């Protein structure tokens, strides 16, 4: 009975962990799309600044020097856009350069809450046919089997029969 329940736990965790590579792939695609769009906005701003004879900092200074609060707010918004572009670009490079174990270990630190949430909202499960997916499935089965087996043994301790040994 314990082995059957532990196997169910192993299969359950295997299915869950086998989905990680697909989630990571879908997250990376969304992150790449966000970086591409921010690259276009950044390049457009830099190009417009260059045409006006300014660099990015000079253009942002001009926004902030304006007495018009709308323009000053737009300058602050652009600064946040540039910071986000840099952060997301660095995150994308780290994820793309990571091996499967690094990606699993570090993905929580990489998750941008907005992109991560939207990825989960639209996540489509996939059958793991890659070596990475099979690796995660096997690891999930092993860990799930061991954890559930240990939990069952622990819970059964109070009901275990004690052997009485007689000395002769």
Could you characterize what this model shows?
There is one protein chain. The longest helix has 32 residues. The chain has seven helices and no strands. The chain is mainly α. Helix content is 79%, strand content 0%.
Short structural summary:
The chain is mainly α and 168 residues long.
Rg for CA atoms: 26 Å
Query: In DSSP terms, counting alpha (H) and pi (I) runs of 4 or more, how many helices?
Result: 7
Number of strands: 0
Unreliable segments (pLDDT under 50, ≥5 consecutive)? none
Largest sheet data: none
Record the SSE blueprint.
Blueprint: H1 2-18, H2 20-51, H3 56-65, H4 69-96, H5 100-110, H6 113-121, H7 131-156
Helix pairs in contact: 1-7, 2-4, 2-6, 3-4
């Amino acid at each position: 009975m314990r082995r059957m329940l532990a196997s169910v736990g192993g299969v359950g965790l295997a299915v869950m962990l086998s989905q990680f590579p697909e989630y990571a792939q879908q997250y990376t695609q969304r992150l790449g799309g966000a970086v591409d769009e921010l690259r276009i906005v950044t390049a457009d701003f830099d190009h417009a600044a260059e045409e006006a004879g300014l660099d990015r900092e000079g253009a942002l200074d001009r926004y902030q020097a304006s007495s018009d609060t709308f323009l000053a707010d737009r300058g602050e918004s652009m600064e946040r856009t540039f910071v986000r572009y840099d952060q997301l670009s660095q995150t994308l490079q780290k994820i793309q350069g990571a091996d499967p174990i690094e990606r699993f270990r570090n993905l929580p630190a990489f998750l941008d809450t907005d992109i991560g949430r939207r990825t989960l909202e639209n996540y489509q499960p996939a059958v793991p046919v890659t070596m990475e997916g099979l690796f995660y499935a096997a690891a999930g089965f092993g860990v799930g089997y061991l954890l559930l087996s240990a939990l069952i043994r622990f819970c059964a301790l109070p009901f275990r029969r004690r052997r009485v040994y007689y000395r002769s």
